[in-house]
Amino acid sequence: MDLQAEIADWPVGSASVAVIGPQGVIDVVDDGQAHPWASVTKILTALTVLDASVEGVVDLDDEVGPPGSTLRHLLSHASGLSPDGDRIMAAPGTRRIYSNHGIDVAAHHLEQAGDQRFHDHLEERVLGLLDMSDTALVGPPAHGARGSIEDLATLAWELLRPRLLMPEVVRLVSTLAYPGLSGVLPGFGKQQHNDWGLGCEIRSDKSPHWTAPGNSPATFGHFGQSGSFIWVDRSVDLACVSLSDTAFGPWAAQVWPRLSARVLEAYS
To answer: Is 244 within 8 Å of 149 (Cβ atoms)?
Structure first.
């Protein structure tokens, strides 16, 4: 597969893409730039909080957020919080309402319970552990990371084949929480099964979607409004990541599934 040719018609100024298998990076196009990760940051934040929960610093059943909400609800967008504020739009566990604010609240809870800045937790529990030295949190925990395609590929490889992160942490981030919840997938409309783990979106039977129709329902990952994405499909032992300098829009909804289909065809 000619990865460079596959992205040549993307209507962006610059983009990087990598394909990852069991042994690491299979192929990469690297523009040499660090890009905003936008909501892909949520995976880093969730892994940090989950690592702290396994160590007992916080508990997933801690009451955080709206009445009746827990840390588990916040990480899976099931707390009922509105996308960007404290307004309560539903009872906890009844709807999947994608909430940047909910992720920030979860990070703040760890900051208070762990008695150090969230940035320090992130560095200690994820970035430093995985040697992701080109990535930093320069904004909110929900969408403020900036980094290289090399680091994003490192994260994808770890999620595909955990070596340094605790297996329970990877299981929690990628396993469906609160089954049966409907909700709106930003950019792709209402989904009857808007499945989410404790940090990662799970593909399920969503349609339309930013991955390929051939990706397994268990595929997990995230995309960001900065034109970034990461997916991990263990059924074929593959992952794919991308960063760009152009915000998400109709172009991405068109070319990302095409790229994902070609990756599956070429490497699975």
So the answer is: no
